[in-house]
Amino acid sequence: MPTQVRADVYTRVTEAILAAIEAGTGNWRMPWHHSGADVTRPTNIASGKPYRGINTVSLWAAAYGGGYASGVWGTYRQWQDRGAQVRKGEQASLGVLWKEISRRDDEQDDEDGGKGRRLFARAFSLFNADQVDGYAPEPGPVLPESERLAAAEAFIAALGIDTVYGSSSAYYHLGEDRIYMPHFATFRSAHGFYGTHIHECAHASGAAHRLDRDFSARWTKDALAMEEATAELTASFLLADLGIAHDPRPDHAAYIASWLQVLKNDSRAIFTAASKAQAAADWMHAQQP
User: Fold this and answer.
1) What is the largest CA-CA distance in the chain?
2) How many CB atoms lie within 10 A of CB 143?
C-alpha cells in the first residue's frame, strides 16, 4: 500500500479524535470519559469481543460525535448477517485493521509488533447499533456498584505496587517506585478515587522493571504529554472493564492543550499512546489471580 494512503488512515482517525477532544474542552470531557456502563466498551457484534487499543479510542470518539448510546459495532455485512440493516444515509465510522509486513532494521513500528515484526494500519468502516434497524440487544447483568468498587480495590491490590496514603496530591514517584495518594475521604466520589489510583498505577506500569515505557526519544519535548495521555487511556480502558465511571480529573485543564498540540503535530501519536495504554492494561490484567 502506498505510503501516502497508509498515512491517510492515521490522519483520518486522528482528526476524528481531535474533533471529539475539542468538542469537550469546555467541560474537560474527553472522548475516553465514560459512565462505566457495559455499552461504553466498544464491542464487535460478530465476535462479541471488545475492541482494543486505537479502535477503542476511535470508536469512543465516534460515539461521542454521533451521540450513540450503544457500544456495539459491526461492519455492514456483519449487521446483515445478524438480520439487521444499516439505515440508508448513515455515515460509517473508522475502524483500524493492523496488517503485518516484514520489517527492516531502519523501519519504525507503527504499532508495537515485537522484534522482527512491523504492523501498519488499514481503515475499514463500522456502524453503531444505533444506526441499524432490526437489532435488539440482550440486556446484560449489571453488578451493584458496591461489588464493582470492591473488584477495583482487589484489582489494584493484585498489582503489588506500593502505595502511601495521606499526601496532598496523587502521583507516582519513579525513584521510589511508589504511588502517593490522598485519603479516600478527600475524593468527591468512590469512582474518582479508584480512577485516580488506576491512573497512577498506569504510570507505575511504565517503570524499567515492568514495561520500560519511554517517550523521550521520539517525543522529546512532548514526552510528559504522551505519558499522561497513555495513563489516561489505560485508566479508561480498565475502568470500562471494571464497570466504573471515568470522569475528568482536576488536572485535565493543564494537559488538554498539550494533548491537542501533540496530536496535531504527529498523526501517529494517538496510535502510539493507545498501543502503550493497551499494553499497560494487558499487563495489569495479567497480574490478577
Assistant:
1) 58
2) 12
Residues 36, 142 contacting (CB under 8 angstroms): no
Residue 144: per-residue pLDDT: 86
Instruction: Determine the Cα–Cα distance for residues 273 and 230; give it in Å rounded to an integer.
Output: 5
Helix (H) or strand (E) holding 125: strand 117-128
The residue extents of the domains of the chain are 3-286
Q: Using alpha carbons only, what angle is made at residue 2 by residues 44 and 58, rounded to the nearest 5 degrees?
A: 30
The angle that helices 53-66 and 3-23 make with each other, rounded to 10 degrees, is: 50
Report mean pLDDT in 10-residue bins for the chain, 289 residues: 58 91 76 76 94 95 90 97 97 91 51 60 93 88 84 97 96 97 93 94 98 95 94 94 85 80 93 96 97
Nine-digit cell at 149?
A: 468498587
Q: Rounded CA gap, 289 and 278, in Å?
A: 19
Q: What is the DSSP string of 251-271?
A: THHHHHHHHHHHHHH-TTHHH
Distance CA 122, CA 1 (A): 9
Grid coordinates representing 180?
502517593
CA dihedral sign, ordered 149, 152, 156, 158? positive
- C-alpha cell at position 35: 459512565
Q: Which amino acid would we find at residue 14? A: T
Task: State how far the alpha carbon of 206 is from the alpha carbons of 234, 251, 256, 278, 281, in Å.
Answer: 11, 20, 22, 12, 11
Cell triple for 271: 496510535
Total-model pTM: 0.89
